[in-house]
Specification:
- The chain is α+β, with helices and mostly antiparallel strands.
- It has two domains: 18-158, Pnp Oxidase, Chain A, CATH 2.30.110; 173-345, 3-Layer(aba) Sandwich (NADH Oxidase).
- Helix content is 23%, strand content 27%.
- Strand 1 (26-32) and strand 2 form a beta hairpin.
- It is elongated, with a radius of gyration of 25 Å.
- The mean pLDDT is 92.
- The protein binds flavin mononucleotide.
- Flavin mononucleotide binds at residues 191-192, 194, 249, 300-304, 324, 349.
Amino acid sequence: MTLTTNQDLDPVRLRQAFGFFPSGVVAVAAEVDGVVTGLAASSFTSLSLDPPLVSINLAAASKTWPDLRRAKSLGLTVLAEQHADVCRQLSGPVEQRFDGVPFTVADDEAVTLDEGVASFVCTLEREVEAGDHVLVVLRLHGFDHAEDEGGSAPLVFHRSGFTRLTRSGHPRYKESARTAIPIDPVLADRWSPRSFDPTYVIPDDTVTSLLEAARWAPSGSNHQPRRFVVTERGTEAFDRLASTLSGRNRLWAPRASLLVLAVRVDHDPDGTPYWHADYDTGQAIAHLQIQAHALGLVSRQMGGFDAARAAELFGLADPYVPRTVTAVGRSGRLEDLDEATIQREREPRDRLPLDELLLQEEG
Ligand SMILES: Cc1cc2nc3c(=O)[nH]c(=O)nc-3n(C[C@H](O)[C@H](O)[C@H](O)COP(=O)(O)O)c2cc1C
């Protein structure tokens, strides 16, 4: 990274650079003249403990702030990870901002959302003009937060998109995709490590959410010619599926929490072929992988396995054809792998450049 001063600080590029700093998002809301009014702000900062102060920065051109600032008090709600749509709504048309969003109005007009991870009630302390924004200092009068353990996680705003926290202790040793322009972090940050935490057990509802993601993947004519065999580490079925893996896959994949066999369905009961079966099966696994990543898990697909043996061991006959095995779990420590696999894992992630992907017509 080379850094020169006196650059043209183009606001569009500057906004992109600012976007590298991750933040949470708060809903700032109050009942003003009997109307619930609010906006989303990613600039919440804790400012002082004594006196208790927080701040937010709002665009000087905000049409909502002139109303909000008149309220007796304001509610700030730290949005939870399931609030990406709520956040978009709070940044959209004024009259729809609270549609379908459960909230509570306090006596002093402060409005807090019911399912946030934390909420604060405050009054306006001071406003400071700051270029095209105004720095709003707020004095706290009350707060509440979710359970310390098992409470929901906050929504995270990063590089123009929403992402989730991955708990530290889940090692990541590869960089995110170097994209020409930002893409959604769930896509840019997904990766396929060979290192899995051999102690991690995936909760049942997480397995269900992975399968729901696969189930809702697009499908030609909606035939959905794909099936899955899901096996959990520690079971006989897992060992059976692991025994079909070939080459280096045999070394690392058995540490995963799940091995999922993706099975293509070649034709309908009358023998009419499903021409898109392979394509649809791949899409379903791609969706499963993205959902796994969104939940803080990792996954890696494997074509390196004995499909005929898997069919035999799991009693799968025409029209069912085993296609891939996907390892899913929590990422593990690189140093726990064998030396040759560690070397492979150290190779950078790369893809063909965009212009090589585009087929151009001659002339
Ligand atoms: C059809 C298919 C078969 C694959 N087979 C294997 C395999 O047998 N063993 C393996 O280690 N990785 C396998 N992979 C994983 C790819 O190597 C991996 O997706 C690629 O290295 C990109 O890594 P990334 O997702 O971190 O960018 C396979 C992927 C696909 C889509």
